[in-house]
Each structure stands twice: as C-alpha cells, then as structure tokens.
Sequence to fold (140 residues):
Amino acid sequence: MTTTQVTARELGKRSRAAVEAGDRDGWLALFAEDAVVQDPIGPSPFDPEGTGHRGLGAIAKFYDEVVAPSERITFEIERSYLCGDEVADVGIIRTWLAGGRHVAVVRGVYTYRADGNGKLAALRAFWEFDATELVAAEDV
Fold:
C-alpha cells in the first residue's frame, strides 16, 4: 500500500489559499489540535507575551482578531525551501486594512511544520513589526 505524505510546502500553500479566500473554517482545519501560530515570532501587538497562539481555540481567536478584520490578504512567495517536515517560504504578505485605503506590506520568512498526519503543527512568521510598510491602496 502506498501513501502520499502531505508536505509542509503543500500545507503552507493550502494555508495561504484559505486566508486569501477568507475561509476561516478551512484554515483552522489545517491545524493539529496542539498546533502553534507565531505571527510574528516574539512579542508584538498581536501576541504581547511572545509565546504564540497554542491550540485551536487560540488560533481561531488569532484569525478572528488579526486576519478577519482585513479587507484582503495576498501572498507572494519568492522562494521556498522544503527540508524534512518543514518549509521556509520567503516572500511578501500584503494586507488591505479595514477601510481599503492602506495596505500593510510585510517582507519575511514564513515557516510551516507538518505533524506527519496531514496537519500543521506550527506556522511561524519571521518578520519585523516595525519594518512593516504602509502604502496607499492605489499604489499597490
């Protein structure tokens, strides 16, 4: 019997597609029960203690408070490095803020770790909150 392992790269692609589509339930379904989201890693206004959002309840709250209020989110992955159960994607996230007049542009490295059972064990984003660019929507 041959089984096909879902790679971290594929899970990362599914994660980004769900966010772009505004598919909260589809995005949450990608995560293992004990998964962690750190976006960004370390203390930030999204995670003052810097410990990450652990478990599906905390990840759902992160989605509701950080992802859902955005009018639109797009991802542009420039490079992707798959190593074992993890992938590091280098690229840009553009987030159209509520009101649609400004877009936050975040450059970083976004990592995904698969749990071996077709779910995400971790989503970790390396980006600097203070380096976020805010541009007029008409310039994007």
